[in-house]
Amino acid sequence: MDSEGRNRAGTFMHLNQETVAASVNEAYEGKLELMDVKAALKKYSWLQDYMWKVVSKDKDEFTKKVAEDYSGGYFMRILPGAELTFPLQSCLMITQKNLEQRVHNIIIAEEGSKSHIITSCVQHSSVPQASHLGISEIYVKKEAMLNFTMIHQWSENTLVRPRSAAQIDDRATFVSNYVCMRPVRDIQMYPVGYCTGEDSRVSFNSILYGQANSQLDIGSKAVLSGRGSKAEMISRAIAREGSKMFIRGMIEGDSSDCKGHLECRGLLMDDKSFMQSIPELIARKKGVEITHEAAVGKISEKEITYLMTRRLSRDQAVSLIIRGFMDVGILGLPEALNAEIKRIVDASTGAA
Amino acid sequence: MDMLEVKDLSVKVEGKLIIKNVSFSLKEATSHILFGPNGSGKTTLISTLMGLPGYEVVSGKILFRGVDITGKGIDERARLGIVVSFQNPPEVTGVKLADLLKLCLGKTVTDEFSAEEMKQIEAFKLDGFLNRDVNVGFSGGERKRSEILQLIFMKPNLMLLDEPDSGVDVESLRLIASEIERYVENSGGSSLIITHKGDILEYIKATYGCILLDGQFHCYTHPMKIYEDIKKMGYEECVSCRKRPREGWTSEPRK
Lengths: 352, 255
Known about the structure:
The structure holds two protein chains of two kinds.
Chain A lengths: L9 E6 L2 E7 L7 E5 H7 L17 H8 L5 E5 L4 E2 L3 E6 L5 E11 L4 E9 L7 E11 L4 E9 L4 E11 L4 E8 L5 E4 L2 E4 L5 E10 L4 E10 L5 E10 L4 E10 L5 E10 L5 E10 L5 E9 L3 H8 L5 H12 L9 H15 L3
Chain B lengths: L3 E10 L2 E11 L4 E5 L6 H9 L5 E9 L2 E2 L5 H7 L1 E4 L6 E5 H8 L10 H9 L9 E2 L5 H14 L4 E5 L7 H18 L2 E5 L13 E6 L2 E6 L1 H18 L8 E3 L4
Parallel strand pairs in B: 2-13, 3-10, 3-11, 6-9, 9-10
Antiparallel strand pairs in B: 1-2, 1-4, 4-5, 7-8, 11-12
């Protein structure tokens, strides 16, 4: 992602332990607020009530650490009825060696707003050891739509522990997309979507490319307590070069006419790598309809042979099939953003 | 120079000898029809010529336009100009037909089709399928049309066609058969066509055909005649009443 503010609704940069840039593109003033979270807490007294409301302070050792002390984070607020069709670039950078970066982000999509946000977390490649603990609390209010895409481009030596949760109100929709295409030392995340509102919807989609001994433990959970609420979870994962991947998904049906579906497809490219898919469905009320499909396998030799008869080398054939497997269409992005994510995915998988 | 020359070829599949010491040559600008019951080795022959995995050449040589291709890989043979149309092509999820056609044309997936290429896609009635995953949910006729169009786009010297007429509706058959014939006529390329039915013979101007039975060639005459005899007498009978070809058979170019 480029570091310039061109074509972005806004830019946010938190470098090591301080916010160095937070600006909103002129065209989006009145639609969007973006500032460092500590500054926002000073400005808005009501914001205190949003902190630690959906993510619990005592959840685990990482949340406790951030509750104790954190350096900042982004506060993003999409104003009522506002529509944002451009990505918002937020970037949490680490350039300091051995830094344990702790941030707490709050996102509020006010009633009736519709936005697509793309955020990426970048780490400078020369930093050998670092860790990132990030808390994100997301509030999607009545009839709002928030499509939030996170692209992780961490360096190979970072420990990453994002803890996030979203509360989704009546007739609101939250789509959370996670794309991880670069090697990473160790990432474990399990965001939760609380569909408390009537007819609320949550989607968790992920595209994961595990390489070079990366450890990925990526999951999501949806709690469907609102009447008529719906959840969908789709993931596409590839493990190679000694990467170890856990893909989890849990849908909990707590109200009698809620629906959910979970689909996980994985490709294991070699014997050194490992993949475990763990779908879980919980039904607490009669009338809950939740389904899942999980499949882990290999690329079909028949398909590779077929493409080779069309003059592709074996490597080109594998790349083409992988490219198709990592289907960015599952993220539900508008065309311009789709093309951008597709470029990132194709570049990492070495596709033509 | 012969388009294809096969010398003393024997092929094993899963340890079992299927093709037994056959020799033949195929000239340029020729179509040759291959008949034979299921299990006689027709698909084995074509798969071996294409270099597909699982087919072990235990003896003999394959020469394509003078070049020994016996040890060469699949994509290398394809680049040299040999292409194959499968009887049951696999579904390739995630790869769009448009992308595959572009690769066949030697384009990249981001290039556009030319107006002439689009016309051909429309002639094959595949314009509505460009955004579909290759072969996923395609009917028999749609699959075969997709196969043949890919082959034509690759501008091959030799087309190996494994039952291009099976599972195909009448209209699709007429379309693909006339397109194959047109290509062979215009390009000077050759084709080797496996078939069970006689329908394709209506469109393909082949003057030579033969029967592959138990891994060996028999009969060597006009395909219509062979087909009529098979219908009347069955493969075994038909084979017993014709003389074996001399050394191997040679397919002559059309007049």
